[in-house]
Amino acid sequence: MTFDEIKNKLNKFTVGIAGAGGLGSNCAVALARVGIGTLVISDFDIVYESNLNRQYFFQEQIGLRKVDALKENIKRINPDINVIDNYIKLTENNIVEIYKDCDIIVEAFDLAEMKKMLIETCLSELPKTPIVLGLGMAGWGNNNGIKYRQSDNLYICGDEISEIKEDNPPLAPRVGMVANMQANTVLEILLNKK
Amino acid sequence: MNIILNNRHESFTKERLTITQLLVVKNYTFKMLVVKINGKLVKKDAYDKSIITDGDDVTVLHLVSGG
Questions:
Q1: Which of A87, A109, A172, B46 could lock A54 by a disulfide, CB 3.0 to 4.6 Å apart?
Q2: Which residues of chain A neighbour B64 with C-beta distances below 8 Å?
């Protein structure tokens, strides 16, 4: 496919991004660059200086809501992308309503319990929607540890092992690798659709 | 029995295992898990009564924080 054909096809789709931190901001930007039609982005946090070691925000955006800052950055890259932003904490009670019309959901939370909540809620209530998970990307090095596998409608990107700790923080390179792997998985699924 | 565990073939001497037993045998000690048997989600309160038998396709996801 040429890039024009790819853009025209991707323009018809809606991708949900659950969380606008390290995974969500970088994945959303990658998807915006290739021309996904609509991105539905939800997050309840604001931009802190400590986020700038991996998240797609800028110094002057510190203090802004992440969803607002990310929407602004996406529009600067590609003003044609339709961004639906929700400044909200996702829970099992609102996730279905927010993401039910998405062709794919990208799980981009930081906390394990939030990842579990999203997976269990979506497997139960949106069983047909593919979920692309980011699982395990703390630290640095170990390129070959980052992998990909599919389990039915779950697509798993990451090393599945490394947990963030004080002395093993999430950093731009590995977080970006997994975020872009998630975006790459989204493309693979959508471009294979008839 | 032979099952598929996380996309790999695995053999066990027992002919049936509950999820709780499987987690012990495999030394899966993480607190935050998502378990599926043949694509169907199994919640934590059912780990003791959900039986894995020959030919089952089992997924055990360890949910690690970071993102």
A1: A172
A2: 112, 135-136, 138, 160-164
* Whether the model pTM is above 0.80: yes
pLDDT in tens, A52-87: 999 999 999 999 999 999 999 999 999 999 999 999
Residue A6 exposed, middle or buried by CB count within 10 Å (0-12, 13-18, 19+): middle
Residue in B closest to A151 by C-alpha: B59
Say which residues have a Cβ less than 8 Å from residue A167's Cβ, sequence separation at least 6: none
The span from the CA of A139 to the CA of A99, in Å, is 31
Q: Work out the number of other CB atoms within 10 angstroms of the CB of residue A170.
A: 24
What ipTM goes with this model? 0.89
- Per the CB < 8 A criterion, the answer to whether A99 and A16 are in contact is yes
Q: Work out the minimum CA distance from A4 to partner chain B, whole angstroms.
A: 32
Question: Scanning the structure block, which residue is given the tokens 């927010």?
Answer: A98
| Domains identified in chain B, total number | 1
Which residue range forms the structural domain that includes residue A83?
3-192
B6 touches chain A (CB under 8 A): yes
Judged by DSSP in three states, A52 sits in helix
- The CATH number of whichever domain residue A80 belongs to comes to 3.40.50.720
Beta bridge partners of B53: B16
The residue ranges of DSSP E strands in chain A, in sequence order, are 14-18, 38-43, 82-87, 104-107, 131-134, 147-151, 154-158
